[in-house]
Design brief:
The protein has about 325 residues and is α/β, with parallel strands linked by helices. The protein has ten helices and 15 strands. It has two domains: about 110 residues, Rossmann fold, CATH 3.40.50; about 180 residues, Dihydrodipicolinate Reductase, domain 2 (2-Layer Sandwich), CATH 3.30.360. Helices cover about 35% and strands about 25% of the residues. The strands form three sheets. Strands 12-11-7-10-9-8-15 form a seven-stranded mixed β-sheet. The protein has a six-stranded parallel β-sheet with strand order 3-2-1-4-5-6, with helices on both faces. Strands 13-14 form a two-stranded antiparallel ribbon. α5 links the parallel β5 and β6. The longest helix has 20 residues. The chain starts with a strand and ends with a strand.
C-alpha cells in the first residue's frame, strides 16, 4: 500500500486537532512530524500518537515528508506556504489563504513554479446538506439561481483571532470566506461588486470587528448577502452556523449545514450541547486532499478558490472604509 508522509505546521488554529484526527484515521497516511514553536500546545498530540516534534518548521521541511497541513496564525500563512513549496511539499492551508490579494497570488505562483499543489481548507463543501444541495442545483431542480442568502454567525473566538497583527481582521474576514466559497461554488461565477458593514457591537474593547454584513453581485447576475457576525453568546452549543437559502427561478433550497445533531440542555452543564451524528466535514476534506496527491489529480479546492473568497472579505473592509460599494 502506497503511504503518504504528511507533516503539520502549527496548532495555533483549533481546526488542527480535527485535521490530525482525520489524518491518523486514513491508512494511506503517516503523520511524520508536527512543528510548533509552542511545544506545550502539541505535546499531548505528539506523545499520544508517537509523532516526532519540531520546534522549527524548517527542520520538518528538510525531512522526506511529501505534504504539509498549515494551521498557523493568518499572518504566517504566506511564509509557511512559500517555504513548504520551495521544499517541494504539497500544501493544505487553513483559511483565509493569506491577508492580501498580492500575498495570495504570490502563494499560488510559488506553488505552481515549484510543481506542488495548494489546497485551501474549506471543509464546509463536505457538509452532507451542502453536498446534496449542490447536486440539486446541478440537476436544475430549482432552475437558474437568482440570489443566495447566507449566514456564518459564530461566537467570538478570542486568542490571536482578535489581535489584528496576527489575524488581519475580525468577523468580516474570519466568517466571510467559508460561505462565500460555497456561493462561488454554487454559482460558478465571480463576484464583481462588494458592499459591506462591519463594526464592534457585541463585545467591548475589541481591536477588531465582531459584526459584519456583506452584499455581493456576481458576474452572471446573481446577488448574495451574508451575515458574518460573531453574534453567538458563550452559552451557544457550538461555535456558530452555516446556512444558505438559494433562490432559483423554479424553487428555493434551504440549507442548514449543522442540522445533523442531537441537542442536550442541562442546568448542570450550564450550556447547551450539540452531539453530532453526521459525517465529519473535516475528515472528508482531508481525505480529498490525500486522494488527490496519491492519484496525482488536481486537489478539489484550490488556492485560487481561497483567493476568490478571501478577496471578497478584503474588499468588504475597503467598502466599510469608503462607505460605498467596491468593484472587484
Amino acid at each position: 500500500m502506497q503511504q503518504l508522509k504528511i507533516g503539520m505546521i502549527s496548532f495555533a488554529h483549533g481546526h488542527a486537532n480535527s485535521y490530525l484526527q482525520a489524518l491518523v484515521s486514513i491508512p494511506e497516511v503517516k503523520v511524520a512530524g508536527i512543528a510548533d514553536e509552542n511545544r506545550d500546545r502539541v505535546a499531548k498530540q505528539t506523545e499520544h500518537h508517537g509523532i516526532p516534534y519540531y520546534a522549527d518548521y524548517r527542520e520538518l521541511l528538510k525531512t522526506d515528508i511529501e505534504a504539509v497541513v498549515i494551521c498557523s496564525e493568518n499572518v504566517h500563512h504566506l511564509e509557511h506556504i512559500t517555504e513548504a513549496a520551495r521544499a517541494g511539499k504539497h500544501v493544505l492551508c487553513e483559511k483565509p489563504l493569506c491577508l492580501s490579494v498580492q500575498e495570495m497570488e504570490e502563494a499560488i505562483r510559488v506553488c505552481s513554479e515549484n510543481g506542488v499543489q495548494l489546497m485551501t481548507a474549506f471543509p464546509c463543501r463536505y457538509l452532507p446538506a451542502v453536498v446534496r444541495a449542490k447536486e440539486a442545483v446541478d440537476r436544475g431542480d430549482i432552475g437558474e439561481i437568482v440570489a443566495i442568502k447566507g449566514t456564518n454567525r459564530g461566537s467570538m473566538p478570542g486568542r490571536w483571532f482578535i489581535e489584528p497583527g496576527l489575524s488581519g481582521g475580525g468577523a468580516l474576514l474570519d466568517h466571510t470566506v467559508h460561505v462565500m466559497d460555497l456561493m462561488n461554488w454554487f454559482t460558478g461565477s465571480r463576484v464583481t461588486e462588494v458592499y459591506a458593514y462591519a463594526a464592534t457591537r457585541f463585545h467591548e474593547d475589541l481591536a477588531v470587528d465582531d459584526t459584519g454584513m456583506i452584499s455581493v453581485k456576481f458576474e452572471n447576475g446573481v446577488f448574495g448577502v451574508l451575515d458574518t457576525s460573531w453574534s453567538r453568546p458563550k452559552a451557544f452549543p457550538t461555535w456558530g452556523d452555516v446556512t444558505m437559502e438559494v433562490i432559483g427561478t423554479k424553487g428555493v433550497l434551504s440549507i442548514d449545514g449543522f442540522a445533523q445533531s442531537n441537542e442536550l440542555y442541562s442546568d448542570e452543564i450550564g450550556k447547551g450541547v450539540w452531539a453530532y451524528w453526521g459525517d465529519s466535514m473535516d475528515h472528508y476534506m482531508v481525505k480529498g486532499f490525500v486522494e488527490a496527491l496519491l492519484e496525482e489529480t488536481p486537489v478539489p479546492i484550490t488556492g485560487t478558490d481561497g483567493l476568490r473568497s478571501t478577496e471578497v472579505a478584503l474588499a468588504g473592509y475597503e467598502s466599510v472604509s469608503r462607505g460605498q460599494p467596491v468593484p472587484l
